[in-house]
Amino acid sequence: MRSISLILKQFSRSVVLVAGFAICGFSAYAQGDAVKGEALFKSKCTTCHKLDQRLIGPALGPQLESETDDKWLTKWIQNNQALISAKDQKALKIYNEYNQSAMTVFGDLSDGDVSNIISYVRTEYKKEKTAAPAAGAAQAKAAESGPSDLVIFGLIGVIVLAFIVILVLNKVIATLERLLLKRQGLEPLLEEEPKEEGAPVDRFALVKKLAKNKKFIFFVVLCGILASVSWTWMTLWNTNVHTGYQPVQPIKFPHDLHAGTMQINCQYCHSGAYKSKNASIPSLNICMNCHKVVKTESPEIHKIYDALGYDPATQKYDSTKSRPMQWIRIHNLPDFAYFNHSQHVKVAGLKCQQCHGPVETMKEVYQYSPLTMKWCIQCHKRTEVNMKGNAYYEKMEQVHDILRKGGKVTEAMMGGIECGKCHY
Amino acid sequence: MDSNKKYWKGLEELNNDPEFVEKNKHEFAEPIPIEEILSGGGLMAKTPRRDFLKALGFGVGAVTLAACQKVPVHKSIPYLIKPEEITPGIANYYTSTYDGHAILVKTREGRPIKVEGNPNDLLSKGGLSAQAQASVLDLYDVNRLKNPILNGGDASWNEIDAFVKKELDAIKGGGKLIRIVSSTIHSPSALAVIADFIAQYPTAKHIDYDAISYTGIIQANQNSFGKAVLPHYRFDKADIIVSFGADFLGTWISPVEFTNQYVQNRNNKSLQSKKMSRHIQFESGMSLAGSNADVRIPIKPSEEGVALVTLYNQIAGTTLPGSKKLNNVTADKALTIAAKELLAAKGKALVISGSNDVAIQVLVNAINSLLGSYGSTIDLDNHSNQFAGNDHDFVELISEMDKGEVDAVLFLNANPVYDYHSSSAVKDALKKVRLRLSFSDHNDETASLCNVIAPNHYYLESWGDDQVLEGYYTVVQPTINPVYDTRQAEQSLLVWSDNAVKEYYTYVRNNWDKSLLAKGGLSGQKGWETLLQTGFVKVADKAAGTYTFSRDLNGVAQTILNQSSQMEASGDKLEVQLYQTVAIRDGKRANNPWLQEMPDPVSKVTWDNFAAMSPTDMKKLGHVQGDVITIEANGYSIALPILSQPGQAQGTTSIALGYGRTQSGPVGDGVGKNAFPFHSFRNGTFQTTAVATFSKTGDNIILAQTQTHHSFEGRNVIRETTFKEYLKDPSSNSGGSIKHKKYDDLFWQDYELEKKPYNWVMAIDLNACTGCGACVVACSAENNIPVVGRDEVRRRREMHWIRIDRYYSFNDEGKEVTEEQEISTLKDLEHVSVVYQPMLCQHCDHAPCETVCPVLATVHSSEGLNHMAYNRCIGTRYCANNCPYKVRRFNWFNYWNDSRFDNYLINEHTHLVLNPDVTTRFRGVMEKCSMCIQRIQAGKLKAKMEKRPVKDGDIKVACQQTCPANAIVFGNKNDPNSEVSKALNSERTYYVLEELGVQPGIGYQVKVRNISEFEA
Q: For residue A419, which residues of chain B lie inside 8 Å, CB to CB?
């Protein structure tokens, strides 16, 4: 039931949107009947028809463009069943084309109403056609960039180091030259020259003075060493920790829209989280539950259609054209660590957000938690076991012992930090 | 009984060969060349300071840059349209059938990864053989044919169909013969398809041809009772079993089923009700059944006939003409006692013979008739369909082919070019056949001589059904889409015979809808779906009729005795007995590395066959183990290494069939030598004995034999008693009264396991375990255990987590032989008794391995398990050194991904068979039995999700699950009502090396032998 209501909700939104556009467009062309027709179209037709696309029924724009016999149309709209049972050729053709699913009979629509609707459809469709097709959305390439830029940083570091070495060497060479000159008694000669201009000397005087201050140099070097050691320390500890990893996905799937605005439950798509070790990325048929009708014009949604080999015009799947959708995995545990979603979601009753962060606000998902063993164990040590109403824990003497003493039963106490529980 | 009875794994241990002693001192077979490095120039040579700095700088730089590579981008590819029944990460189980056994196939994300017994299987109640366990691997054999082949070139199915149909029509028009040669088919639907095919091509005939033939029994039943069937034997109803060379626990007819039946009268439950069957075995080579027998008498193949005549005379109280005394005092004595005991147990006795000779089987029928076995231990009315081969038919076919009468021959699961005794006869005959077609999915010996190969689906890709026992109908359903462009043979036959039904699936459905479903009280679509869930229907057994043998035996006895005297080897000849090994059987699965690496239960040899000889003979002839000898018989000769086999009858040699394949694939090719040519066609059947001459070649090779690997260094780990003693005192020799020294818990914290929810332990009943080795393969499949190959096994590097130790001991004239006695004074190594002991990580509560690990990679859990964290292990191997049970295995190489170990497991496709819940271990890491912790965790999680406590029996470990004898019980010791608690509370329970104070978690139950006052 939930999914159906979601679809309806999505659908009604899109209808409102279309209607909104229509109103904006219409203000210029305003024709009495078309405006009335619009209201009628909205209330009666949009459940099964769209202007430019086939839905349950035909796309009305092209249909009414080719079909100009308004009298016949009126008859069809008011009572298509009568036409079909009268074996009207045109009616039968449509009827059979749409899998013999009968159109609703609108006995309550007067001839005037019907012509209002027809004129609305025709003007509106014309307008849509003339409007230049929206600039194709820039195809976002799914760049396969790795999370580590260590190589680049390393190279930069090497260059900087080399530069410093060159500077120091230059300095040494200069000093040596000066010493040489001094020994040869030439130094005073050179030193006289800068004395002639006062200003530049003053500018570097402070630096020179500081450079000769041994305490200051010691302090600077110390700071430098400390900084680099702590940087190395942090880097090493965070090797292979990819918090914040946010690759570009092949489809720009906005979690903030689906999980946030639309309030779709995580498990609607990630249904495995409740029953399996894998939360699982939804198969595309889950997307199609809604996107068969919702936002069908979006280029991102068309990526789904392309992957499935689905043709929105005919609503047919062609499995020969289908190709797998290659998402980029964000949360990567090493192979030797066993993790089971259902254990955490179903048994422990954890919220997805506890590990995955505020997904409902993420336009693009990134890795929220470090996924390190330390992180796992910390949680296992702090978290109390959720045993409410679970007969599994009922007869465990060990549990009762702890509770009797007024302690709290954590995962760790139940053996949750033993090696073999996750590594096998 | 003396508890310091001497048990030994091999003669080298018994005799304390210097080489053995030396090897056993070291942990590893090959010394690690530390000394060389230290003593040679290695560390002493001077390294100039500049060179050192250069090397250091380069090293650091290289390592840093190497470590700086980008983290690979992992793709995650979901289903496009997810099938409703699949949840990634959760296994699906489908019922199917393997060789007549109802099975469950475990699939993950659409690929089969394990075969498990269907707990409701009528044959073995969920037990499976090693072959069945290994069968899943063959699905991923990359050497399978990937498409049909026409005249040596790749072809499409349309081309094949057009060609075959044109040929068949032409042959039909010309009135020439068409023959379908298959190993026995017990599928009702497949038989119906063949019948339809024959209806379309009336010159066609179906010939059952079994490489290992049971024609002798079938013909004998035809002669004796007018029923040409293989009876259904009931070992569970037999109080006394006398077997003449029939290895009914290893290879004979239906070994898994028989094991299950046999153990019912010998397990703990039976013992507690003071009942134990008695089993006497007369045989030449040591077989699995023989090694489990209470009394085993070695006889030569030529003595078998005489012995049976003698037994008949004693039971019937008559003397058949020509009877002579057996030239074997012990056997003679044993026969007298056997006859007495058989008569005493009339109606509950069973005599069987492994011979394929009609006359011998007729005599066996006569004996069984006298003993009233028909209707109780032998059921002729609910007969077995397992084998129906008719040897004579195939021999006739060859002569027909030779005469040019046959224009088409279709081979279905038959490979006579390899397994017929005269390969050249088949080859020559095939040359005269116009259409030679094989359904083989490998380009095997026969298929390669065919002009059409129409590769069959593997059974895991097929629809079908089976009926191995009359009235027991099982269903075969596919668990994966066909991997290659193959087509089911039945489907091909349907197409070629223009059958009205186009799809074999529809055909099977129709067949079931028409008649079979109704037999199980099912009908329609719903009935079919029920069948797919239960896996089988069973028609109520007919009442087993009693049959009385009433034919004249004089002629039969004459034939038998004549044959025996012909068989007798004179001079320096040897009597050759051909047998199947438990792992390789008839050689059809020779390309399966799991089976090749499984140590043979008795000989413990892997990756080879050999000539087993009695140690006494070897001494006499001046041979040592591994000497290669040439054996010649029937104008065919092979060179095989000798294996010294205690218990082998003197003057005989036993050679395993199924080896020496030339076109099975890279794993099976060239492993061992083909012994099928030693078969001969005598008295209308294929006979498995021959008289051979032999000569030395001068070569000596080392067999990859695991028997003395992982030695206990003479510590006493086996406890056994006799049934008589057991009746007096059930705790007899279980060591319960022995007080062991208590050790202070200096190193081990007190885990207070009794207060914890779980304490996972295991109980192994040594009296139920037959040593068949199915658990070894099941464990390999479940835990992703690598195959290391022959050379690595020779270096004692096999990786199996569970091994079955086979111990010999002497039973010399009723007296126990202890270590103190001089072993060299013993007369013969023929009369030895055998104990099998499955050995795996004992999960000691005071584990010696844990205290020596410098990195805490192996630690104890609060559930009584000894955990092994692979990612933490740095490979010091201290733990293996300190383990008294020698159950830890070290990964010397990255076996799953090293091209040096050239078995076909090393490729992406075959890796699909891996269990995704268990990591594969990398080079340099120690591993060992985890007590299937993935199953424990999954079982607990399931209980938590269903909000209920874990029930006893919820969690089954892989070895326990496959054991046809139910010898292994696993469970929670803290649950007093669990099976395992009850088993461990049995008086027979003892712990191996209890005296060390390591507190092992696995309890063994004392072996009981049903030996009467006489013992030879």
A: 857, 859, 861, 867-869, 872
The DSSP output letter for A150 is H
The reported pTM is 0.83
CA A236 to chain centre: 30
SS3 annotation, A306-348: HHHCEECCCCEECHHHCCCCCEECCCCCCCCCCCCHHHHHHHC
Three-state secondary structure call for residue A264: coil
**Cα B112 from Cα B439, distance rounded (Å):** 23
3-state class (DSSP) for residue B879: helix
In whole angstroms, give the CA distance from residue B817 to residue B735: 19
d(CA B318, CA B311): 10
- Identify whether the C-beta of residue B411 lies closer than 8 Å to the C-beta of residue B438: yes
**Least reliable range by pLDDT among A156-165, A182-191, B239-248, B649-658:** A182-191
What is the ipTM score, two decimals? 0.84
Please check whether residue A150 is in contact with residue A65, taking contact to mean a CB–CB distance below 8 angstroms. Answer: no
Compute CA distances A398 → A233, A417, B625, whole Å.
41, 16, 58
Q: Tens digit of pLDDT for each residue in A232-273?
A: 998 888 878 888 889 999 999 999 999 999 999 998 999 899
Nearest CA in chain B to A325: B77
Domains defined along chain B, listed by start? 11-15+708-1009 (3.30.70.20), 157-208+389-469+471-538 (3.40.50.740), 215-384 (3.40.228.10), 577-705 (2.40.40.20)
Q: Between A and B, how many residue pairs show a Cβ–Cβ distance under 8 A? A: 163
Identify which of B481, B476, B535 has the alpha carbon closest to the alpha carbon of residue B110.
B481
> Between chains, do A283 and B82 touch, taking CB under 8 Å as contact?
yes
Q: Which of B385, B364, B346, B390 is nearest to B225 (CA)?
A: B364
User: Are B757 and A397 within 8 A, CB to CB?
Assistant: yes
Contact A328 B862 (CB under 8 A): no
Which pLDDT tens digit goes with each residue over B143-201? 999 999 999 899 999 999 999 999 999 998 888 899 999 999 999 999 999 999 999 99
Cβ separation of A242 and B71 shorter than 8 Å?
yes
The interface residues of chain A toward chain B in range 149-178, judged by CB-CB distance below 8 A, are: 150-151, 154
β-partners of residue A15 are: none
Across the interface, whether the CB atoms of A146 and B70 are under 8 A apart is answered: yes
Chain B residues whose CB is inside 8 A of the A143 CB are none
Asked if the Cβ–Cβ distance from B89 to A272 is below 8 Å, we say yes
Touching check for A342 and chain B: CB below 8 Å?
yes
Does the beta carbon of A144 lie under 8 angstroms from any beta carbon of chain B?
yes
Distance CA(A292)–CA(A311), nearest Å, equals 10
CA torsion sign for B502, B505, B509, B511 is positive
> Residue ranges of the alpha helices (H) in B78-156?
130-139
Query: Can you give the three-state secondary structure of chain A, one letter per residue?
Result: CHHHHHHHHHHHHHHHHHHHHHHHHHHHHCCHHHHHHHHHHHHHHCCCCCCCCCCCCCCHHHHHHHCCCHHHHHHHHHCHHHHHHCCCHHHHHHHHHCCCCCCCCCCCCCHHHHHHHHHHHHHHHHHHHHCCCCCCCCCCCCCCCCCCCHHHHHHHHHHHHHHHHHHHHHHHHHHHHHHHHHHCCCHHHHHHHHHCCCHHHHHHHHHHHHHHCHHHHHHHHHHHHHHHHHHHHHHHHCCCCCCCCCCCCCCCCCHHHHHHHCCCCHHHHCCHHHHCCCCCCCCHHHHHHHHCCCCCCCHHHHHHHHHHCEECCCCEECHHHCCCCCEECCCCCCCCCCCCHHHHHHHCCCCCHHHHCCHHHCCCCCCCCCCCHHHHHHHHHHCECCCCCCHHHCCCHHHHHHHHCCCCCECHHHCCCCHHHHCC
